[in-house]
Amino acid sequence: MDAxxxxxxxxxxxxxxxxxxxxxxxxxxxxxxxxxEQLTALVTQPKPLILIRGLVESKSAELxxxxxxxxxxxxxxxxxxxxxxxxxxxxxxxxxxFHLPSTTIxxxxxxxxxxxxxxxxxxxxxxxxxxxxxxxxxxAAFLIDLTVLSAIGFFLGLVFSEPFIRMGSLGRLIGFAIxxxxxxxxxxxxxxxxTIGKRLLDIKVVGRNGGLISLPRSTARASVLILPYFxxxxxxxxxxxxxxxxxxxxxxxxxxxxxxxxSIVYLFLFNRRTRQSLHDxxxxxxxxxxxxxxxAPRREIWPVHYAVTACILVASVTLPYFLSGNVKLDPGMTxxxxxxxxxxxxxxxxITDMKHKMGSVHSTSIDVKVWMKEKPETFRxxxxxxxxxxxxxxxxxxxxxxxxxxxxxxxxxxxxxxSRTESFNLTPxxxxxxxxxRVPSIISL
Length: 445
What we know:
α1 (17-32) runs parallel beside α4 (61-70) and α10 (215-231) packs across α11 (243-270). 50% of the residues lie in helices and 14% in strands. The protein is α+β, with helices and mostly antiparallel strands.
């Protein structure tokens, strides 16, 4: 047992790693401010139990590295670095502790730093706000993850293109089933809180206490993040449902796709204090630098961000109510829509009565968009078949200036998509001339 010397940091009890790191940050700030009196008060506590020098040697290499980065290798004794407190009388003689040789930690070879530059470096390292991963680093990691998922989708598309085409927009569920475990599993404690992108950018997902999050929690976090994207564009075939149920479904989809989706984007762009987006806020997680010692930022989320997010969510659920009163479906268009859908040839059908204005010129059109399940003989012949049905089941098309038919074929699984589209926009007169006497024989198709 050696006497406590000036410059030895003494602790009453063995602390947790988190408490030890906070103590070291405090000592460094005191040292950089050159307040010897405060430092002396800290290192001369009665009944000391251990010395940081000894603690560092007994801990893992990871903790040793953390303490070295915090500057523990410095001797906290601006004057009389080797003076024994018992001999000099500057500390209580009974203050003794387990003491290892002074060579326990050796300073790495590095250029000497002035007091100003050293203080700036320590301030940057010990500032908890600096441990939060920044916007560009997170964006770069996310783009890398999207590239990985796109590569997976590309190779799946080469093998399963025809089944994906027949699935139509429901193929987006395939992408969801791939992206969910990718983000859910890799961002959890199972893989160290890092997707491939995060690993390359040296960032990770943690909870507020700094620990890695569980697999269920990570999966829930990933669901909030990716669900708005994969539900957007998901097409549900015509199903007769009560108006109230249709409205509820519309509310739910608008809340998830637009409410949650826009909230995620808004917080990701403008929440500069904690860089938490909606999925982080709901699951109480942070994305931090991989080698960060502190987790929680100095400041909480600006309350205005909560207010804006609430407005976005409220607007998303009220918008369908106001829009539903303005949408009036023509009975003839509804019959045409059902007829095209029931043929089983199309994975997607959309019919729109459009009004166009270009300067002082006004025009109207019926726009029909379909996605084919099977490969047509030609896209033009497929368009002619649909045009014939329009003339037969919706005679009001004659009063429009144009009939536009768009034929598409391909797949979209969310993480990769391939398609080909051809559009045919003619006046009713030109369509009749082009169809000729084939119209009666096509009506029954």
